[in-house]
Amino acid sequence: QSVLTQPPSASGTPGQRVTISCSGSSSNIGSNTVNWYQQLPGTAPKLLIYSNNQRPSGVPDRFSGSKSGTSASLAISGLQSEDEADYYCAAWDDSLNGHWVFGGGTKLTVL
Amino acid sequence: QLQLQESGPGLVKPSETLSLTCTVSGGSISSSSYYWGWIRQPPGKGLEWIGSIYYSGSTYYNPSLKSRVTISVDTSKNQFSLKLSSVTAADTAVYYCARHRRTVTTAGWFDPWGQGTLVTVSS
């Protein structure tokens, strides 16, 4: 029962484009920026997208983020086997004096 | 290159206090643009923010954990610490520390993260 809602799973074949959605509310995504984290199996999360659509240095441009209203999306084009991981969205929530909230995570499988 | 490393007991008894330390290397914990945060992940589940601290000692916590959490900083050792009291099995998780970048216009983001440490609550 995460504050931000993500599909539990997604899949695609190599070379395909996949998108992962993240739905929130006016107190989080609707009024603050969204970040995305990639967690490869057995490792710590890694920042993938910040401020809705900015890529940190070293993140391939195959990864892109967008936000509209109270929802956000992560798109991965040219899917590769090494993209198989869990993906989490996160945003600041203005309620209760403010706190960070995360999505429940989406497990991406490369078929 | 900035690195963070969590340390502390891997096993804590129910009702006791969980204590972890994060050591920052390759950069100063006193940098003005950054907070320092704790995030946890129960086995097989998602991420939960615990709280963050500025080098001055200013803190803010997850409202759901606030009554049990204390985060402190030791700038002389380039470390910050987490204490979570009255733990139960529900507090079993991998605990991560991370640098928390805040900007004038956004709440920021967490980057980089430590490798994480598993803490099990069990008698």
TrEMBL record, chain A:
Composition-biased stretches, type Polar residues, lie in 1-16
**Gene Ontology process terms (BP):** adaptive immune response
Taxonomically, which superkingdom?
Eukaryota
Matching InterPro entries: Ig-like_dom, Ig-like_dom_sf, Ig-like_fold, Ig_sub, Ig_V-set, IgV_Light_Chain
Localization recorded for this chain is: Cell membrane; Secreted
Mainly localized where? membrane
Q: Which residues form the signal peptide?
A: none
User: Which Pfam families does the annotation name?
Assistant: V-set
Q: List the keywords (alphabetical).
A: Adaptive immunity, Cell membrane, Disulfide bond, Immunity, Immunoglobulin, Immunoglobulin domain, Membrane, Secreted
Residue ranges constituting the Ig-like domain according to the UniProt record: 1-91
Q: Does the keyword Repeat apply?
A: no
Tell me the SUPFAM superfamilies matching this sequence: Immunoglobulin
Q: Where is this region: Disordered?
A: 1-24
Quaternary structure per UniProt?
Immunoglobulins are composed of two identical heavy chains and two identical light chains; disulfide-linked.
Checking PANTHER family in the record gives:
IMMUNOGLOBULIN LIGHT CHAIN
Protein name per the record: IG c1659_light_IGLV1-44_IGLJ3
Q: From which organism does this entry originate?
A: Homo sapiens (Human)
